[in-house]
Amino acid sequence: MELILESRAVLAKELLHVWRARARLVATGTFALATLLLFSFAGGLNDAALRENSAGYLWIGILLASTLALGEGLRVETEHNAIEMLLLLPVSPAAIFYGKAIGNLLVLLLVGIVMLPFLTVLFDATPTEGVGPLLLCLFAGSAAISAPGTLHATLAARARSRDVLLPLLLFPLVIPCVVAAVQATHLVYAGDPMDQLGSWLGVLFAFCVVHWSVGGLLYSRVVED
Amino acid sequence: MKGRWELIVGAVGGLGLLAGSALGLWWAPQERFMLETGRILYVHVPTAWLSMILFTAAFVGSIGWLVKRRWGFDFLSEASVEAGVVLGCLLSVQGSIWAHWTWNTWWAWDPRLTSVAVMVLSFLGILALRSFVDDPEKRATWSATATIVAWVNVPFVYLCVKWMRSLHQGQSSVANIDPDMGKVLLLNTVAVTLVAIYFVVTRWRIANAVHQREFTE
Q: What total number of domains does chain A contain?
């Protein structure tokens, strides 16, 4: 119970931080949309191919935007030594991790939701299975990126060449979750006659359980050293 | 030379690998379906096992460092990750050459191939992390954390051919192949293990020497 209350307090601080730095949030969303446009050109402006691959473009856009969102969030705290101050407060490091990870999850979810109408406009992709399953895919995929992302962004923020280091550490780790998220989202867009959506969502939730647990356990080692 | 027992271990391993590979090429029976290309088994399977064992050793070393704070565990983790990445890259190259002749493609987006690539890339990132952190204690702790997270993929690499439909064949072991093939596979597995021990101990000694220098400077 204490962990939940502490995490909620850290989350409130994170959201306030995001709100005060709204320009950064807008920049992250714009970056994600720019990647969608770039994919249109990379796909040779073939309408059928663009529609078929739209789920992949969505998740690569979110993944690339996540390095900006995660890296920037931790950079500000590290530069001003705010993380040290945070550790002086009577909250457990696990609560700091969960507060930050949920904050990052909400940011990624927001970026994904903003991208959805553009996916329909640019690629003519409409969710055959409905908006509910699509939002569930977005939620599960964003959660699977935000937990390991928060842990590794904290590591990278205090190392040299952090901008290179975060993608190096994060991208290989989240490939399985991106594969599952792309497959699940594709099924929502293209239709799911074989009932495979549940399996891919199951993979995503299993990934979340592992990384949200491991992250909570290890975060104290990362921030207290 | 005194006290460098790993040189003897490495030399025995190297000779064993040469002997095992020669036996695998010319003495062991041909695989029924893959014919001559099946002989890759004698180097590919030990490489795969050892890369996963080394990453597991790195995982154990990382937990050891986080719990006990003894430098030996950090050296073990560093040495095992490096040797594991070398074997993991070799594994991918061997598999790719084999796939070119058997599947008519250098690479297939198969669960086993993809998960091995993810595993090797994850541990390569940890080597990068080590080189970007100057403080030895922070380097040890952060890389231990990242190693534990990256290791989560290792059991999946081993089990994915059982869990998922895969182009890659199931796990080969001494128990499920011809006895003569099994003898050669066993010989090469022991040999590759000895070579891996040589690499890890040598790298452990280098890590120790670097550590001594960092603390005297």
A: 1
